Amino acid sequence: MFLSRADKPCFFVCLAASQLIFILLLYRRGASSVFQGLFGPYPGWDYSKTQDVYTNLSLFVPDSEAVRTQYCPVSSPILVGPLTITFNKPRSLKSIQLKNRYVTSGGYFSPRHCFGRYRTAVIIPHRNRESHLRTLLYYLHPFLQRQQLHYAIFVVHQAGNATFNRAKLLNVGVREALRYDDWDCIILHDVDLVPENDCNLYICDEDYPKHLSSAMDKFQYSLPYWAYFGGVSAITPDQFMRINGFPNTYWGWGGEDDDIAMRIRLSGMSISRTPLSLGRYKMIPHDRDSGNEENSHRYNQLRKARTTWKEDGMNSLEFRLLSRERTQLYTNLSVDIGDAPEMPTEPNRWSIF
Ligand code: UD2
Ligand code: MN
Question: For residue 338, with 0-12 CB atoms within 10 Å meaning exposed, 13-18 middle and 19 or more buried, which class applies?
Answer without folding.
Answer: middle
